[in-house]
Amino acid sequence: MKLDTDFVRAQFPAFDEPSLSGQAFFENAGGSYTCGPVIERLERYYRQRKVQPYAPYEASRLAGEEMDEARARLAAMLGVAPDELSFGPSTTQNTYVLAQAFREWLSKGDAIIVTDQDHEANSGPWRRLADAGIEVREWQINPETGLLELEALENLLDESVRLVCFPHCSNIVGAVNPIVEITSAAHAAGAFVCVDGVSYAPHGFVNVGDMGPDIYLFSAYKTYGPHQGIMVIRRELGALLPNQGHWFNADSLYKRFTPAGPDHAQVAASAGMADYYDMLATHHGITGEATDRSAGVHDLMRTHETELLQPLLDYLGDKNSVRLIGPRDAADKAPTVAVELAGPGEEAAAQLAQHGIMTGGGDFYGSRPLQAMGIDLDKGVLRLSFVHYTSQAEVDKLLNALDETL
């Protein structure tokens, strides 16, 4: 089964927007276009439901129901219980709050493991635990390949390690890390697992329940939704960690780690992401439970992206003037492609913009992996990233533009 890209693109108002006409969007790792169902729900909420939710009058009741719907449907797609999923203002903020909970829970002499492959949001807050006497161990990437190797993690694990934090995939390297194998190794050593799914989730939601991590984080604004951070924390761990919310919310798992009140409208609008997945599943004849439909849509997205990605990797891999970072096999990589050039990545992005290519250059909050691979942060990289709504014609346009710029 092939993804119907015409149907997909019809669900995104951006493709009918005159101001974006003639341009190809290749900075999706920084944030995706928003799908129509999310926009419709957000507008409806502001027009009809913009009241304090969960009161008995009609507008308030409907507002609360829409917020609950978003949590329940997204949790079902991810294979977790509704109260194991919570919303926050961003993944960075959610990670920071979790780190504070761990700061209270851990004792001096305990250790955590972080990687140097991460975006800073899933690294910086955890590294600050060293100020509280927690040992922070770094699982380092191979400086040539940019990959995290399981053997190196196993050498760091012992009875002192209480938490292992790593990305599903890096927003620089793009390699898809084996969550199940890493989680199994960490659990066998008695450690909990936190996965930063921000860079992978745009390419399809996964069954977090089956994969096994104790925490899984991603950003809705990169998965076709509003600017919210979505956090899964499994009940066993959530009950152990100290409450970070209001004291009267201590018994509510989905409120324990959200100190601020939720953005009602954006939480409600997040149900539009579930609407969109359901639309894709129905259009492509995918049936079953929520996790089955979600898995089917995930596979459609990844198959389409992989077919478009391989020619781009082959093209860049054959260029002596660039250093292609990460795997060269599209099956092992999300379509987030970073290349080191002779000059600054931002300059190359500016040249590509003249050819109708929207992309960016810099360090993308990934200074640690860049430094580990010996890349000058002042120069940074050119990053080309796309998702399932990208068309073959847009990739061809990109390749032609690269021919003229590199």
Structure commentary:
- Helix 8 links the parallel strand 6 and strand 7.
- A 7-stranded mixed sheet has the order 2-8-7-6-5-3-4, sandwiched between helices. Strands 9-10-13-12 form a 4-stranded antiparallel sheet.
- It has 15 helices and 13 strands.
- The protein is an alpha/beta fold.
- The protein starts with a helix and ends with a helix.
- The radius of gyration is 21 Å and the shape is globular.
Outline of this structure?
The protein is an alpha/beta fold. The chain has helices spanning 5-10, 36-48, 58-78, 91-105, 124-127, 150-154, 179-188, 208-211, 235-240, 264-269, 271-283, 290-317, 345-353, 367-372, 392-405; strands at 24-25, 85-88, 111-115, 135-139, 161-167, 192-196, 215-219, 229-233, 323-324, 336-340, 357-358, 360-362, 381-385. It has a 7-stranded mixed beta sheet, with helices on both faces. A 4-stranded antiparallel beta sheet has the order 9-10-13-12. A two-stranded parallel sheet has the order 1-11.
Key features of this structure:
406 residues; transferase; 7-stranded mixed β-sheet; Aminotransferase class V-fold PLP-dependent enzyme; PyrdxlP-dep_Trfase_small; Aspartate Aminotransferase, domain 2; 15 helices; 14% strand; PyrdxlP-dep_Trfase; alpha/beta; 4-stranded antiparallel β-sheet; Aspartate Aminotransferase, domain 1; transaminase activity
